[in-house]
Amino acid sequence: MQLTIGYLEGTSFLLLLFIAMPLKYMMDIPEGVKYIGMAHGMLFITYIIILIGSAIKMKMPLWAIPAGVLGSLLPFGPFIFDHLLKKNLQENVSKEA
């Protein structure tokens, strides 16, 4: 679930930055920012809630929550964070086995 929300949140942020905002400021079409911005806001809040819940439930590393929050503020950040977290969790599982 967290992976899906991460991809949706990251995609909505990229749509907001690279499509909706240029449409608003270059072509005077503000509707994209209104709707994509609202969707991105809801996805961002959902992402943070699921991140915290997942970190507690899965006993993620200490760096996971601040890195996830920071990643959600940067373009392409959620994609990179999810990749690094998956890699770290797989390494931990293979060490325990």
Helix content: over 70%
Please outline the major beta sheet: none
User: Which structural class best describes the helix and strand composition?
Assistant: mainly alpha
| Unreliable runs | none
Report the order of strands and helices: HHHH
Oligomer: single chain
The overall average pLDDT, rounded, is: 89
Distance between the termini: 25 Å
The radius of gyration is 16 Å
Keywords:
97 residues; mainly alpha; 4 helices; elongated; cell membrane
Folded structure, characterized:
Helix 2 runs antiparallel to helix 3 (64-73). With 97 residues, the chain is mostly helical. The longest helix has 28 residues, at 31-58. It has helices at 2-27, 31-58, 64-73, 77-96.
Please provide a brief summary of the model.
This is DUF3817 domain-containing protein. The protein is mainly alpha-helical and 97 residues long.
Topology:
Layout: H1 2-27, H2 31-58, H3 64-73, H4 77-96
